[in-house]
Amino acid sequence: MRSLGLSVVVEAGAGGSLQVGDLVSGRPRQWARRCVVKLFVHSCTADRQDGRSKAIPQGCDAVDLLGPLGTTGLTEYFGLFDVAHLKAGETLDVSGAAGATGNVVCQLAKRAGARVVAIAGGPEKCAWLERELGVDKAVDYKSASFRADFAAAAPKLDVYFDNVGGEILDLALTQLNRGVRVILCGTAPRSVMVEGASDVMQQAQLQDSKLTGITNYFQLVMARAIMKRFLVFDYESRYAYMAAQGS
């Protein structure tokens, strides 16, 4: 099972840059109380890329290595710029926008000069996305007017960053610009879209056998779209460089 975690150095080789008691972040090959790891970065300016664990950069909190400077932040970066090739001026929509992955997507996309439409559940989350993260429009999928709101906010998408799948993904496929890139990052166990907020919890309890599959997939053909999946683990050789840049 792959994992990411913070560890304490209990023994260090002679001549190395680490000392006993130092904290490191990485992905050990197994779940264990102790394991041997190979260091690939030990400061904010290091550029070595030949291993799988890194010491916490100076000026960074330990928790950052489990979030924006860990696989969460790296996932969004590679998904947006290596897979989607997001450009300034394009319109991006991201589902699950208030979650750990989605909110970083919003911030990186805005920083890159994109117009960002965010999908989240509930007016408070949507208000937070607009107020704190500066997204251009946040759309509440629990609202009775969600379909109309989404169509108005994102009539043509250049990039769709999917974190939930299901019916919300299916709806997004009706709003594609020519040459759109649909990026598959995650999914919800029972991703359902409903017409009214009162039905959300009831619909979420539906059995998988009662859920419909994607019906608008042919829109990918009409839009000359690209739909791609990726895993952040495909980019391990660049973790060190990106962690240094991000910090």
Automatic annotation (TrEMBL):
Gene3D superfamilies: NAD(P)-binding Rossmann-like Domain. Pfam families: ADH_zinc_N. Residues 101-217 form the Alcohol dehydrogenase-like C-terminal domain. InterPro entries: ADH-like_C (IPR013149), MDR_fam (IPR045010), NAD(P)-bd_dom_sf (IPR036291). CDD domains: PGDH. One of its GO terms (molecular function) is oxidoreductase activity, acting on the CH-CH group of donors, NAD or NADP as acceptor. This is NADP-dependent oxidoreductase. The lineage of its organism: Eukaryota, Fungi, Dikarya, Basidiomycota, Agaricomycotina.
